[in-house]
Amino acid sequence: MSSIRLCLKEMLAQRGMTRYELSKRTGICYQIIDNYYKNKVVRYDSALLLKMCIALDCEISDLIEVVK
């Protein structure tokens, strides 16, 4: 069974950014960022993902991967 995994942890490490800093840059509540970071999200919000991509200067394909 395949699943979707968010690579936010790796992306933040590459950018030298903390979850708190991403929260401040995007205006997204820290707890929501933390849930995405820990892959506890079941339904992904496209508006939030767009804000993260803009703040991290990356493509959506850099943040999401399909795990088989």
Query: What is the radius of gyration computed over CA atoms, rounded to a whole number of angstroms?
Result: 11 Å
First-last Cα distance:
6 Å
The number of distinct helices, counting runs of at least 4 residues, comes to 5
Biggest sheet overview: 2 strands, antiparallel
SSE order, as H and E? EHHHHHE
User: How much is the average pLDDT?
Assistant: 96
Class inferred from helices and paired strands: mainly alpha
Assign a percent range to the helix content.
Answer: 55-70%
Shape: globular
Strand order of the largest sheet: 1-2
Fold and architecture overview:
The model has no long low-confidence stretch (mean pLDDT about 95). This protein has helices at about 10-15, 20-25, 30-35, 45-55, 60-65, and strands at about 5, 65. The longest helix has 11 residues, at about 45-55. It contains 5 helices and 2 strands. It has about 70 residues and is mainly α.
Question: Which helices and strands, and how do they pair?
Answer:
Layout: E1 3-6, H1 8-15, H2 19-26, H3 30-37, H4 46-56, H5 60-63, E2 64-67
Antiparallel strand pairs: 1-2
Helix pairs in contact: 2-3
